[in-house]
Amino acid sequence: MWPKWPRGTMPKTDHRITLTPNKVAGLKLAKPGQRYQIMDAQVPGFGVRISDKTKTFILRTRFPGSESASRREIGKCGDISLADARETARRWRELVRKGIDPADLERKEREAVAIKRRTTFAAVVADFERDKLSTERKGEDVMREIRRDLLPAWGELPITEITDLHIAGLIKEKGRKKNVSKFAGSGGKIAARNLLGLVKRLFRWITEQPEYGLKLSPAANLTTRGLLGDMPRSRARTLSDDELFALWRAADRMPYPHGPAYKLLCLTALRLNEAVDAAWDEFDFREGIWTIPAARMKGKESQSQPHAVPLTKDILAVLDSVPRFKGGRYVFTTTAGKTPAWISTKIKARLDARMLRALKALARTRGDDPALVTLPPFVNHDIRRTVRSRLSRLKVTEEAREAVLAHARPGIKGVYDLHDYLDEKREALELWSNRLRSIVEPPPHNVVVLHPSAAS
Q1: Partners of 430 in the beta sheet?
Q2: What is the pLDDT of residues 23-39, one digit of tens each?
Q3: How far, CA to CA in Å, does 327 sit from each of 73, 291, 293, 335, 337?
């Protein structure tokens, strides 16, 4: 039964009834300056406190750290349902029985939520970009990969909730993906292996920052072989004379900075980043030497050595053809010299398309069917392999060939023989420049070329 009070009076003491939504809704507000309580018969200490303005669910009990009972608000009637308020009261009573103050627990939960919000994968990546990648030459390229492959999958996840299952699933999916788009590099085992390396690097950095709360990297025990199986064997791909002709023709027609950068690759046999990251302050034009610092050469920092590249006539021609930006340091750039250019898979695909057109045109001039012409896949590093192979055909000594490629010399020679073979490298690169020019600038068909053997 609903309790009845004398006309014009309100209860001054707690009244225990079985609260229902209708009964809570029917409780009248207290007179101005007064308040009263109706307690629940189901949950001890739980009830509704009514003032002249609001109705509030409460729990009255002796909370940990207090010698007497006190009252705490659970929530405003209307903001929280009776069922939810009653369940909260039961949970609070159970915590109190265990000696836990619900307010302390809720504060810790709020802090945990706030920490998760500050340490989502997207938030941590933003810190990684600011604190780490911003200091690196290729930092923006790394961020491009993170934005493409990682942020869409994990952006909203707390960093501590990303597991090895998340990583393994992403890497395997990348490995199964085919390059169905116009440009290469979107999927396959090689792309998946590179992505795993990036993930490992990122999580190593995260574990070194204590504020994120991640003690161990979830990628630590993942391996390329375990996730992707056997990797494709490296191809011993070299370019034919026709392909070199097409490559030079394509580079000639590609705009700065990528066309001239490909020409420099052909002339020097350097690795891609060693050439494309060239800076003007590395060149001594008076001495005719380009010195690439050890920090930019492949290998461990303690083992890398500066690499001197003799400036042949054709290398100088490429450098003379590119613009110089006031205050800009880099030779090949899209940012007025502030940062080096990046030869992406899209740029390589454009080169391939131009090369194929050049090969088809070459076939037409010979009377062959251009429809039968193809360009077998090759990677930028195959240009370096091609030059190395051609130096062997030109009878360049092994020591000079290895010096041109900046290969570390094995054994005791690598420790004590510090001769840099500068003269030998210059001779080798001059020989190669002459041979390359004869390929990319063939004489007219009515001119007979006399080879050294014929002239003798």
Answers
A1: none
A2: 999 999 999 989 999 99
A3: 65, 20, 20, 11, 7
Structure tokens at 355: 């090369």
> For the residues 158-177, what does the mean pLDDT come to?
93
* pLDDT at residue number 252: 95
Sign of CA dihedral 348, 351, 352, 353: positive
Query: In terms of Cα–Cα distance, which of 44, 11, 7 is closest to 19?
Result: 44
What is the per-residue pLDDT for 446?
47
Q: Name the region of 64 (left: φ>0; alpha: ψ -120 to 50; beta: rest).
A: beta
Asked which of 4-13, 204-213, 382-391 is least confident by mean pLDDT, the reply is 4-13
Q: State residue 113's pLDDT score.
A: 63
In angstroms, the CA 424 to CA 430 distance is: 10
Token reading at 178: 């085919």
Query: Cis link prior to 257 (omega < 30° from 0)?
Result: yes
The model's pTM is 0.58
Could you write out the three-class secondary structure of the chain? CCCCCCCCCCCCCCEEECCCHHHHHHCCCCCCCCCEEEEECCCCCEEEEECCCCEEEEEEECCCCCCCCEEEEEEEECCECHHHHHHHHHHHHHHHHCCCCHHHHHHHHHHHHHHHHHCEHHHHHHHHHHHCHHHCCCHHHHHHHHHHHHHHHHCCCEHHHCCHHHHHHHHHHHHHCCCCCCCCCCCCHHHHHHHHHHHHHHHHHHHCCHHHCCCCCCCCCCCHHHHHCCCCCCCCCCCCHHHHHHHHHHHHHCCCCHHHHHHHHHHHCCCHHHHHCCEHHHEECCCCEEEECHHHCCCCCCCCCCEEEECCHHHHHHHHHCCCCCCCCECCCCCCCCCCCCCCHHHHHHHHHHHHHHHHHHHHHCCCCHHHCCCCCCCCHHHHHHHHHHHHHCCCCHHHHHHHCCCCCCHHHHHHCCCCCHHHHHHHHHHHHHHHHHHHCCCCCCCCCCCHHHHC
Spatial distance between the Cα atoms of 188 and 197, rounded to a whole number of angstroms = 15
Model pLDDT for residues 89-127, shown as the tens digit of each residue: 999 999 988 888 888 878 877 766 656 666 889 999 999
